[in-house]
């Protein structure tokens, strides 16, 4: 009987400790969650401003957006946000997220800023799994390749220009890694096409 009581007591103590741990974890999460969310907002705001490259706007950019449903051009499988930069309530630029599903190692997530003249202010790679030292040169942390899109538009670049030089286009590429830039180029071009076809969404 005494052995049974010992086992019961041990189980009770373990259960109590588990409860205390769960409550402590919950309290810690509740306290840290606002900080985590704030850090996410600060990171995204910094990224958006980096892409806008000094563009003059006066609205709360992080809270000025429209929802973009899954679209064939953008290849977004879930609803995403397109951020709107405005000055005196006049649209100055739109930042649109797209997916290049045909990267060498899978999806490549890209954010592109387009100004009121339909030109690209800048593009940035948000997420990718391309091969380190080979296909990852698309990442702005690795090289300046992504800056080639700056100033490009559908009107100031002919269709053949939107290719790597190996395909008679204008974009440099790294030997042995042409799949990656082809995917990014196509995705950015399609982002411009999406913007052109849906301008009314951003000017309401």
From TrEMBL:
The protein's Enzyme Commission number: 7.-.-.-
UniProtKB keywords: Cell inner membrane, Cell membrane, Electron transport, Flavoprotein, FMN, Membrane, Phosphoprotein, Translocase, Transmembrane, Transmembrane helix, Transport
Q: Which GO terms describe its molecular function?
A: electron transfer activity; FMN binding
InterPro entries in alphabetical order:
FMN-bd, Ion_transpt_RnfG/RsxG
Q: Where are the FMN phosphoryl threonine residues found in this chain?
A: 178
**What cofactor does this protein call for?**
FMN
- Cite the Pfam families for this sequence: FMN_bind
- What is this protein called in UniProt? Ion-translocating oxidoreductase complex subunit G
Q: What is the lineage of its organism?
A: Bacteria, Pseudomonadati, Pseudomonadota, Betaproteobacteria, Nitrosomonadales
What is the gene name? Answer: rnfG
């Amino acid at each position: 009987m005494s052995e049974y009581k010992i086992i019961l007591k041990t189980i009770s103590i373990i259960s109590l400790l588990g409860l205390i741990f769960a409550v402590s974890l919950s309290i810690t999460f509740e306290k840290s969650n606002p900080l985590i969310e704030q850090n996410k907002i600060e990171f995204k705001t910094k990224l958006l401003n980096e892409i806008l490259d000094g563009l003059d706007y006066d609205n709360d950019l992080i809270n000025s957006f429209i929802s973009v449903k899954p679209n064939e051009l953008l290849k977004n499988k879930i609803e995403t946000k397109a951020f709107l930069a405005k000055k005196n309530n006049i649209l100055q630029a739109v930042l649109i997220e797209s997916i290049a599903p045909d990267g060498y190692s899978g999806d490549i997530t890209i954010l592109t800023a387009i100004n009121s003249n339909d030109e690209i202010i800048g593009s940035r790679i948000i997420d990718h799994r391309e091969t380190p030292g080979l296909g990852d040169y698309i990442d702005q942390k690795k090289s300046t390749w992504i800056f080639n899109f700056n100033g490009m538009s559908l009107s100031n670049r002919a269709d053949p220009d939107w290719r790597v030089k190996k395909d008679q286009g204008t974009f440099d590429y790294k030997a042995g890694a042409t799949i990656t830039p082809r995917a990014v180029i196509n995705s950015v071009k399609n982002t411009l096409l999406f913007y052109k076809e849906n301008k009314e969404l951003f000017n309401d």
